[in-house]
Amino acid sequence: MSCEKSGCELHGWAGRFQNYFKALHCPTRWLIIGIIGDDEKSTSSILEGLRDEGEQLARSSLYYHLSELEKAGIIELAKYKEAGGGAPEKVWRLKVKEIKVDLLNPPRS
After folding, report:
1. Residues 62, 46: contact at Cβ < 8 Å?
2. What is the structure's pLDDT at 11?
C-alpha cells in the first residue's frame, strides 16, 4: 500500500497519531491530563493543580497548552461556568482516555 496517494486510509490514521504525539511531547500537558482525570475541571482549577505540582505557568501559557490538547482531540470543552459576573470560564474533560497503537494491524477506516 502506498501512502503517496492523497486519501490513503493509513495516512489519515498516521496523521492522527502524529497529532497525539505532538501534543503529548510536553510534560506539562501530561500534568494537565492527570489533573483533569475522570472529572471535569475549570481552567482555574487546572492552573491551581499545576501550581500545586510546582509548575509556575502564566494563564496565557496554560491557554496555549489547553488549545494544543484540544486541537489534538485529547481534551474537549465540557461547558462554561459562570464566574462571579465576569466572562464565563471554560470547563474541560478528557475526550480520549486511552490511545492504542497496534503496529501489526493499523486501522483501515
Report:
1. yes
2. 61
Residues 6+ apart with CB under 8 A from 20: 72, 73, 74, 99
The domain spans of the chain are 9-94
Long-range contacts of 18-21 (CB under 8 A, 24+ apart): 19/71, 19/72, 19/73, 20/72, 20/73, 20/74, 20/99
> Which string of b and e fits 71-86 if b means at least 16 CB within 10 Å?
ebebbeebeeeeeeee
Reported pTM: 0.80
CATH architecture of 9-94: Orthogonal Bundle (1.10)
pLDDT band at 6 (very low <50, low <70, confident <90, very high): very low
